[in-house]
Every structure is written in C-alpha cells, then in structure tokens.
Amino acid sequence: MLFRRVLAQLSTRPKSSLVSANTVLHFDEIPSPKGLPLVGTTLALIAHGSTPKLHDYVDKRHKQLGPIFKEKLGPVSAVFVADPDEIRAVFDHEGKHPLHVLPDAWVAYNQMYGCPRGLFFMDGANWWYHRRIMNRLLLKGDFRWIEGACECVSDKLIDSLMGESDYCGNLEATLYKWSLDVIVSILLGSGSYSQLCGELEPKVQKLAQVTHLVFQTSAKLALIPASFASKFKIPQWRRFVDSVDNALAQANALVDTLIEKKPHSDGLLPKLLAEQITLEDIKRIIVDLVLAAGDTTAVAMEWMLYLVAKSPQIQEKLRRNPDFVKHVFKETLRLYPVAPFLTRILPEDAILGGYGVPKGTLVVMSIYTSGRDGRYFKNPGLFQPERWDRKDEFYSSEMKKASLPFAMGLRACVGRKVAETQLQMTLLKIVNKFEVELGNQREVEIVLKMVAVPSEPLLLKFKKL
Ligand code: HEM
C-alpha cells in the first residue's frame, strides 16, 4: 500500500519539480563529478569496465549525484537524466525535427565517404518527409500483413530448432538470421517471401554475418574521437571502415535483388515504390531498416528466452494464456532495454530537474535506470511480467512512462510494431513446441556493444513437448 501511495504522490508531482518553478538554478550548478581537463572522467569509466558497463556506470552516478548530472565522457559532454518526469520534459522540448546523437564513427564514415543514409541519419524537413511516409506504412492501419510476414519466418525458426537435440549450437547467429529474415519478409510480403526465400538465403546469411561485425567494430571506437581515429587510421578505425564498407555493399546488393524481383504482394517494398520517394532514398531507407532491425530484435529475443527459460511456470502460463506474452515482452524490455540510452540535442532552452539547460545541450536519458526505479516498480530487479496486468495489485498507469524501450515522441522507433509482432509471435510458438531450459550457471549480465547484449553466450536447450 505504501508503494501505491508513493506512486500517487509521483503522479501529482508537477513536471521538473525538484525545486519550485521560480527558483530555476543555473546550468553550472548541475551536479558534476570532478574530472581532468581534457579527458573529463573517462579514467573513472575505464576503471568501472569502460563502455561495456556504461549503463551501470551512469546508474551509479545517478545514485551518487541525483536525478540530473553533467559529465564529460571521452569525446562527449552531456547532461544525464533518469527521472521519468525529466525524461518526459526532454521529449516535450524535442521540437518538430528531433535531433539525436549518432555514433561519432558512423557520422565520420558517412562524411568521409560521401555516403547519405536512411531515417536514423536524416535530419530536419528531409527526415520528417520520409518519416511521415514510414509512419503511415509501418505504424498505422491494418497490421495483418505484418503478422503474415512474421508468421512464415517464425515457422522456419521453429523447424530449425526442431533439429537441435542439445544446447542450441549458435543461438546468437540463429536469431540474427531470423531477425533479418523477418525484415526481408516484411519487404517482400509473405507470398513473395515464401517463393523466394530459398534463393535469397545465401545473401541474407552473408548480410547477417557482416552487419553483426559493424556493431562489434563500432563499439570498439566508442571512447576514441573519430577525428583522431580516422586521421591516424588506427587499426580499430580500419576494421570499422572495412566492416561498414562490407555491410553497406551486401545490404545494397540484397536490396537491388529484392527490387529486381518486383514483388506484387503486400510487402513494404511495393508500397514504398508507390510513394513519392526517389529510388536512391528508398534504398537508403531500406538498408538502414535492415541495420536497425537486425541486432535489436535478435538481442531482445535472446533476453526474452533467457528470462522465460529460468521459469517453467511462466512458460506454462504462456501456454495457457497467450495474451500474457504482452506482459512478458514489456517486462523483458523494462529490465533489458536493448537501447539503454536515448539522446536528444535540445532545440530550445529548457528547465530540467530545476536547472536551466541551454539550447544545443546534449541530454542523455538512461532508460536502464528509469526502468529499474523502485518508486515505479516494486522489487524492480525481479522479472515479474504480471506487474503489467491492470488487475495486479501494484499496477499503475505511471509505469509505462518509466519504461521506454522504443523511446517516445516523433522520433520513436518506427519498427516498433514489427518488433512487437515478431517477438511475441515467435516466443509463443517456441513455448508451445518446446520446454526451454537454461544451461548457464552464473547470472548473465548486460554488456554494451552498441546494444545491450548478454555477457556470455546463452546456453538454451529446446526440449520438444
Ligand atoms: C526490440 C526491438 C527494437 C528496439 C528496442 C528498438 C529501439 C529503438 C529506439 C529506442 C529508437 C529511437 C532512437 C531515438 O529516439 O533517438 C529506434 C529508432 C529506430 N528504429 Fe528501432 N528498435 C527495435 C526494432 C526495430 C525494427 C524491427 C526496425 C525496422 C523494422 C527498427 C527501425 C528503427 C529506425 C529506422 C529507427 C530510426 C527512426 C528515426 O530516426 O526516425 N527498429 N529504435
């Protein structure tokens, strides 16, 4: 009951109300850890485990310095917030064409090699023009075509798991391939996909291998300014450039093949070709959809399987009540948000946490921390999917503002519906065919390699029911 009262107080709290509105504090007064002139607190981060442990480092900083602090980490100076009300305040100030931060190395690559990219990299009116079309195609209307496209690919995954008698050989690669197959099926539509998937198999397989490498090589550059890495062509930069060259070449080759096939069905590609978008832009958008979808959904599936494998009761509940999968999905991404940080560059002055924050400031929002906020979630570290049931004693409509795995506002994930459909549908199919068993002896932790991946390979056994 105490928990309910705290939630009630929180919901009546005005926005950015850590101090009253007439005592706005100066930006310089935002708590900040002591650091060295050039490198800031980078050494403290390195001592904490470096960028693979950034989510935990920032979480500890919030516990030490409060809901808002500023810090210079590597090449980046930012204001960090984790309080759900302050996160909301940032999105209220994101403007008409929200700006997020792109990995330094990716921006440098695109500039050096004159390589314009898709939605994730677009800005301003050009971004909004294409984003509105993609919203209409992927987030509005009837979603049966998305379900159809996900259905045939999940069935293919189940068939391949049927052949596994022991721990699944390379779960990471299997799921990576599955998530790229879903995107190809979304692009072609289920009818054309079923006809062409055999022929496309080697290209998708190759793409799965190379895109995965892009995430690994760019994670290695996270703390090194791209201007330095590219000027001196250090080995990490060369490996990164090779991986991006390769991934873009493979993705473009796949998209060319898909366009040549002239799919007539209900896929995204024929819909895009009917819009007022140049072929060049369509290709860029699709290449980036493939890159944005690959890692995120594959890793989210790994975390869902990890969590349900720990609990035969939850698997049984999913078999009895398929609707429960929605709660399992939300609870997984609350605890293991694949993209644990959201960023915005403020287009106007704002008040955050009672401090005046000037236009142009980079704000980093830790949804790893907000999703584990004990004021919103009772026993925040525990996996309890039932907490998302409206009838649950501890449910509150406030919970959803603290857990934002797909972000919010105009620039939120455009693939959310695709991700929800493919992850929920596939999990249900898996638990209805198999008992999933976990072989890892230790608690698996989050490690950041651009996205939040498991700290060790998952050992999962799929025992036929
Ligand atoms: C569990 C799976 C996924 C998660 C957790 C996720 C998360 C996110 C987040 C947090 C953002 C917002 C970044 C920001 O606000 O700055 C984003 C953007 C984006 N996502 Fe996803 N995503 C997922 C799956 C997908 C899929 C399946 C697709 C493609 C079908 C996709 C395509 C994109 C694109 C293109 C953007 C950039 C949108 C823009 O800048 O307008 N995502 N995603």
UniProtKB/TrEMBL annotation:
List of residues binding heme: 413
Q: Which cofactor does it need?
A: heme
Q: Which terms in the Gene Ontology molecular function aspect does this entry carry?
A: heme binding; iron ion binding; monooxygenase activity; oxidoreductase activity, acting on paired donors, with incorporation or reduction of molecular oxygen
Q: Does the keyword DNA-binding apply?
A: no
Q: Which InterPro entries does this chain map to?
A: CYP11_CYP27_families, Cyt_P450, Cyt_P450_E_grp-I, Cyt_P450_sf
Give the keywords, sorted.
Answer: Heme, Iron, Metal-binding, Monooxygenase, Oxidoreductase
Keyword Oxidoreductase set for record:
yes
Top-level taxon of the source organism: Eukaryota
Q: Which CDD domains does its entry note?
A: CYP24A1-like
Stored PANTHER family = CYTOCHROME P450
Family (UniProt): Belongs to the cytochrome P450 family.
Q: What is this protein called?
A: Cytochrome P450 315A1
Please give the organism. Answer: Tribolium castaneum
